[in-house]
Amino acid sequence: MPLGLQTAQLNFETIKDIGQEGRNSSVFIAHDKQLDGQIVVKQIEKAKLSNPSEYYREAKILYASSHPFVVGVNYGCSDNDNIYIAMPYYKNGSLKSSMDRQHLTIREVIRYSIQFLSGLNNIHSKGLMHFDVKPDNILLSDSNEALLSDFGLAKAMDNLGFASPDKVYAKQMPPEVFANTDKTIQFDIYLAGLTIYRLLNGNNHYYAQCSFPNQAAQIKAIQTGNFPDRNAYLPHVPLKLQRVINKALNVNIKDRHKNVLELINELSDIDENLDWRYEKNGAVTTYVKDLNDRTYQIQLDSSNINNPLLSSTKTMKASGNSTKINSHSHNNLTKNNVLSKLKKALKEI
Ligand SMILES: Nc1ncnc2c1ncn2[C@@H]1O[C@H](COP(=O)(O)OP(=O)(O)OP(=O)(O)O)[C@@H](O)[C@H]1O
Ligand SMILES: [Mg+2]
């Protein structure tokens, strides 16, 4: 027998707007007066929600999704116009901003992916679908772990494992968005595949594919599996990993991973080219592998497309001495064999 409803007052002072990456809410760093501590408050206008039963849906789903690889929630509250979700402040920001600062290595992509996928697997096992998996919605904890975030589109599945999102974002759409059917967890698996594709190749590589002459062309490219380009991975991405991601991105739902655990297991099995960091500057592509006592560098200069130059060096950290790796340096390459020579160097050094 409940003892009675209490209504209490909460005060927090908003300090800084940090929600630039999101569109349907405002996100602030705030100071919680009661706890005398820093929090993040996500503010959602009541007017944007269809009816009062929706007010705390996101907060409730977030609370129900509690897991080491899902962002935390402190409380939900409201005033006349807005709903507020109070969360811990993750000062390292999103995976999107992190990958914009520097390209991720394969080892980093696999580690972050296994982490946010563990969060995703947890919410699926609780009968929920996320519907908005993307690098902006994965936050980095203080110990640099990738946490699944933003449950604004999340929904409970019905008894048969189906659910439908209320909306989708134009840059992140599985082919089944255009079919008038209920969606399964393979919707999230496709979005996870798309997220990992972006983590591997970088945001610019992804955005460059996102301009379509019109919406019909975009829909066609998604439905035929031409977007994103499954053959355009950067040269250091192992073929085995490309196959795993292309499986998650399969246009046919039944040919994708059966569940998130299957995807996690396949990612755990990748052991090639793990530590190369890619950087592109105009016509020059540089790969750096930083080990304890030495640094390897492979540089491809394609300024003259008919005579690309590949140079590989080893630098010992203690002495600063650099030596050329002759077996992986070439100045007599052609457009046709340069890629295979680069891939060989990435694999063998
Ligand atoms: N707890 C947090 N700590 C640090 N930054 C955060 C936190 N929560 C959100 N952010 C930042 O604010 C951005 C927007 O937040 P979020 O993704 O939850 O909202 P949104 O995209 O507007 O939501 P929705 O998709 O429901 O409309 C995130 O991409 C992230 O950069
Ligand atoms: Mg978001």
Concise synopsis of the structure shown:
With 349 residues, the protein is an alpha+beta fold. The chain has three domains: 12-88, 2-Layer Sandwich (Phosphorylase Kinase, domain 1), CATH 3.30.200.20; 95-268, Orthogonal Bundle (Transferase(Phosphotransferase), domain 1), CATH 1.10.510.10; 277-348, no CATH class. The chain contains nine helices and 14 strands.
Descriptive overview:
With 349 residues, the protein is an alpha+beta fold. Helices cover 28% and strands 21% of the residues. It has a five-stranded antiparallel beta sheet, covered by helices on one side. α3 runs antiparallel to α8 and α4 runs antiparallel to α7. The longest helix has 20 residues. The site of magnesium ion has 4 residues, from loops.
